[in-house]
């Protein structure tokens, strides 16, 4: 009787292969559900991974833009409050100046007014030296850890104690550039010698510069704008370059002294510095480089135009001296200019705040849109994945059931 082999591994190998394949698919789907992402490795979907990396990178930048704009908005809002407070104080100072100039007040009345003006001055300086929510000085430019204004005391005729004689700016005029959108920046100007200045400043040189020429290539800084001066340039070339630089300063030659005159086009303190070379020092406008701006003007210049603090100090001193003519003319005019400038600066701060708020809103909308893109490319479809998992479970159960039936026979079933 002929016999044959009936023990084949083919059915077993095929069954094991498909069971392992189903387990791999089930494991992948379990991982997708657990991680909420349909992409576990680059090979899952290379194109989607490329999009996803770019979207996630942009989303992180958008979130940072929103944070930057919120920080700016907070600082603008706080700064606006302090500027407005000083503006209200200046309105009260003006009322006292008008009252003190009418000629009906006695010396004692003017002295009492001067006492109130002095207290208002202290409050204004306190506001100007305010710090923001992060502990940084609000009105010192980029010198955020420096007190914006320093106070010098001295004797004032008519006063019984040392009073504030001078208020000096200790910050700088550098601008903060903060990125609020892709390659878009908000420039923040929080220099106290612009915000709390009363009059345009004029600096007049007394030196005859008709025969002056630059000895070497140099760079000067005028109100934060760098201007190149070439070797051989004369004073007329210098005037032209300053006027064409875009700085808020106008230069001219005095027809009588042949000296250089500089005047700011709005109310702020003039900032002069030699960046390389000694042009400004040579023409006598500034001292040597060991002296830092803005209090580095040379002895050969005459300057005018001060801060709102200088104006209030002048009013107080005029009241102590009972000088009603000075109160009603020069001082009152300076007060009006200071109020006008602070009103302009307050409006600028308010508009900057609105712009920051608009950037916050735009970043929030962009974040929602980009999040949707990230979800589209990388998130798993839970409904579809769970349905597929149930289908795999049924297939797995069917495979195991078929395998059980296939292996339920034994060698005895083949014996005849």
How is this structure best described in words?
The structure is a single chain. The chain is of the alpha+beta class. The chain contains 9 helices and 11 strands. Strands 8-9-5-11 form a 4-stranded antiparallel sheet. It has a 3-stranded antiparallel sheet with strand order 7-6-10. Helix 1 runs antiparallel to helix 9 and helix 2 runs antiparallel to helix 8. The longest helix has 55 residues. It starts with 9 loop residues before the first helix and ends in a 10-residue tail after the last helix.
Tag the structure with descriptive keywords.
416 residues; alpha+beta; four-stranded antiparallel β-sheet; three-stranded antiparallel β-sheet; elongated
Topology (SSEs and partners):
Layout lengths: L9 H26 L10 H55 L6 H22 L20 E6 L8 E7 L6 E6 L2 E5 L3 H4 L6 E4 L12 E5 L2 E5 L5 H9 L5 E5 L6 E5 L7 E5 L2 H4 L18 E4 L3 H13 L3 H55 L3 H25 L10
Antiparallel strand pairs: 1-2, 3-4, 5-9, 5-11, 6-7, 6-10, 8-9
- Report the order of strands and helices: HHHEEEEHEEEHEEEHEHHH
CA(first)-CA(last) distance:
12 Å
Helical fraction equals 40-55%
Overall average residue pLDDT:
88
Biggest sheet descriptor: 4 strands, antiparallel
* Radius of gyration (Å): 39 Å
The number of distinct helices, counting runs of at least 4 residues, comes to 9
Class from secondary-structure proportions: alpha+beta
Query: What's the count of strands?
Result: 11
Runs in which pLDDT lies below 50 for 5 or more consecutive residues are none
| Beta-strand proportion | 5-15%
Please state how the strands of the largest beta sheet are arranged side by side: 8-9-5-11
Task: Label the overall shape.
Answer: elongated
């Amino acid at each position: 009787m002929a016999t044959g082999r009936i023990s084949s591994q083919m059915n077993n190998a095929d069954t094991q292969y498909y069971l392992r394949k189903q387990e791999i698919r089930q494991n992948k789907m379990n991982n997708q559900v657990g991680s909420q992402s349909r992409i576990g490795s680059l090979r899952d979907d290379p194109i989607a991974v490329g999009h996803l990396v770019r979207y996630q990178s942009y989303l992180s930048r958008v979130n940072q833009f929103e944070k930057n704009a919120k920080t700016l908005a907070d600082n603008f809002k706080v700064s606006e409050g302090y500027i407005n407070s000083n503006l209200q104080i200046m309105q009260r100072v003006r009322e006292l100046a008008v009252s003190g100039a009418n000629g009906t007040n006695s010396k004692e009345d003017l002295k009492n007014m001067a006492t109130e003006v002095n207290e208002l001055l202290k409050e204004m300086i306190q506001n100007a030296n305010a710090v923001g929510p992060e502990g940084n000085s609000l009105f010192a430019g980029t010198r955020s850890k420096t007190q914006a204004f320093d106070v010098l005391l001295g004797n004032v005729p008519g006063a019984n104690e040392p009073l504030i004689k001078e208020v000096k700016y200790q910050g700088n005029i550098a601008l903060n550039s903060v990125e609020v959108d892709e390659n878009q920046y908000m420039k923040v100007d929080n220099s106290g010698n612009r915000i709390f200045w009363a009059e345009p400043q004029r600096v007049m040189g007394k030196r005859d510069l008709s025969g002056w020429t630059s000895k070497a290539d140099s760079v000067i800084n005028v109100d934060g704008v760098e201007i190149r001066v070439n070797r051989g340039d004369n004073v007329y070339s210098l005037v032209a370059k300053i006027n064409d630089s875009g700085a808020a300063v106008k230069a001219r030659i005095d027809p009588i002294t042949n000296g250089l005159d500089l005047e700011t086009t709005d109310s702020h303190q003039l900032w002069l510095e030699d960046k390389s070379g000694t042009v400004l020092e040579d023409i006598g406008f500034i001292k040597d480089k060991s002296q830092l701006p803005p209090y580095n003007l040379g002895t050969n210049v005459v300057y005018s135009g001060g801060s709102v603090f200088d104006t209030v100090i002048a009013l107080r001193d005029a009241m102590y001296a009972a000088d009603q003519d000075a109160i009603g003319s020069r001082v009152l005019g300076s007060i009006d200019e200071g109020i006008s400038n602070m009103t302009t600066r307050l409006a600028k701060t308010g508009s900057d705040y609105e712009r920051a708020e608009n950037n916050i809103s735009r970043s929030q909308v962009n974040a929602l849109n980009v999040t949707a893109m990230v979800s589209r490319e990388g998130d798993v479809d839970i409904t579809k994945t769970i349905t597929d998992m149930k289908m795999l479970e049924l297939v797995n159960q069917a495979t195991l059931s078929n395998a059980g039936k296939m292996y339920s026979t034994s060698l005895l079933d083949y014996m005849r």
